[in-house]
Amino acid sequence: MISGGPSPGLKAEFWAHLLEAMPAECRVILDTSGSSLGHLEKRSLYIYKSNIEELGRFSRHTINSDVDVIQSARNMIDDGIAQNVVTSLGAGGAVLVTAHEDIHAIAPTVPISSRVGAGDSMTAGIVFALSRQEPIENAFLWGVAAGTAAVMTPGIQLCHRKETEDVFARIRQSSPLES
């Protein structure tokens, strides 16, 4: 799991050098933005996690709709940059694009206290589910649940387990996937 941007003083190529040093069998999940992204095309990521703005900058396409999100993500997959692309749509939920399918998960409406940490919580939810050997589709839903639960917490707090489990159950009811 690689997230955030390189610390001040590190070159934008830092993440690319880190990826090159990892064994090929490592499944890398990347959640970063900015100038570091332009140096990552040498290694296929297991998951590239973004929001709409980050996906647009990295794919060099204007994102105006879910169709644009899916097409930009599909281009990244076809170009060998990532095996899976998860894009947060904010209140609109998120989209998972794999080599074989695209899934749009709608986040339930919840009271919003703070949006800080929602993206990080989403990524953490994905990593949590993958660490339990869950399929990518379930991991994606756990990510949406964790990101949604995070906006319910005040200030800079991240998601809490109970709220994440409750939101996951609501998402599964509204968009069930086969396990």
Q: Supply the number of helical segments.
A: 6
The biggest sheet amounts to:
6 strands, mixed
- Strands in their spatial order, largest beta sheet: 1-2-3-4-5-6
Considering DSSP H and I runs of 4 or more, what fraction of the residues is helical?
40-55%
Molecular shape: globular
Distance between the termini: 24 Å
The helix-and-strand class reads alpha/beta
How are helices and strands ordered from N to C? EHEEHHEEEHHH
**Can you give the mean pLDDT?**
86
- The unreliable regions are none
Care to count the β-strands?
6
Q: Tell me the number of structural domains.
A: 2
Task: Give a short synopsis of this structure.
With 179 residues, the protein is of the alpha/beta class.
Layout of secondary structure:
Blueprint: E1 2-3, H1 14-21, E2 29-31, E3 45-51, H2 52-59, H3 66-78, E4 82-88, E5 94-97, E6 102-105, H4 118-131, H5 136-150, H6 161-174
Helix pairs in contact: 2-3, 4-5, 5-6
How would you describe the overall organization of this protein?
- The protein is α/β, with parallel strands linked by helices and 179 residues long.
- The chain folds into 2 domains: 1-88, no CATH class; 106-179, no CATH class.
- Helix content is 40%, strand content 15%.
- A 6-stranded mixed sheet has the order 1-2-3-4-5-6, sandwiched between helices.
- The mean pLDDT is 86.
Structural descriptors:
2 domains; six-stranded mixed sheet; alpha/beta; 6 strands; 179 residues
